[in-house]
Amino acid sequence: MNNKGFIISTDSFLGLTLLSLIIIFSLFYLSQLNVFAWDSVTLIDSARDLSTILEKSKTFENSVRLESSELIVEKLNATQERICFEVTIFEKNSLNPKLISTKAGCSTQSSEKFSVDRSFVLDSNFYLAKIEAWYKWFLVRAFCLLFQ
Questions:
Q1: What is the model's pLDDT at position 11?
Q2: How do the domains of the chain map onto residue ranges?
Q3: How far is CA 134 from CA 44, 80, 104, in A?
Q4: Virtual CA dihedral for 31, 35, 38, 42, nearest 10 degrees?
Q5: Looking at residue 30, what is its pLDDT?
Q6: I need a labelling partner for 143 at 20 to 30 A (CA). Which of 5, 56, 103, 110 fits?
Q7: Which CATH class is domain 37-145?
Q8: Alpha-carbon gap, residue 33 to 105, rounded angstroms
Q9: How do residues 117-137 score in pLDDT, each as one tens digit?
Q10: DSSP string of 17-83?
Q11: Per-residue pLDDT, 142
């Protein structure tokens, strides 16, 4: 009997077994990660980015001056298709919205919304803009959760 062949076979068997165990444990821990937890981070970041764009481009101020939400809707429609936004602008301490803008093709019904507030001053008047973000295809996300 050739002992050299036996040792190489045993060594390769142990190596493959150890590699298989490492792969199995890695897959197990990776399967425990919640992919959709990152979705909320994406929504918050998208809402913050949009609020910064609308503020820096003076879209908030111009929309209030013109008393029209067309400029805001134009910016909203240029965002990612899968994320919906609604921008509501309030004047001072008023609970009644001055302007409401919703992205085209989006319904405001969602179980998971995130909002970002941004304030701005126009002609010595204080305004508050509330930007809400949610995913457009909730049923697709629910389907993915079922088969995760």
A1: 81
A2: 3-32, 37-145
A3: 9, 11, 13
A4: 160
A5: 73
A6: 103
A7: alpha beta
A8: 32
A9: 988 888 888 999 999 998 886
A10: HHHHHHHHHHHHHHHTS-TTHHHHHHHHHHHHHHHHHHHHTTHHHHHHHHT-SHHHHHHHHTS-TTE
A11: 54
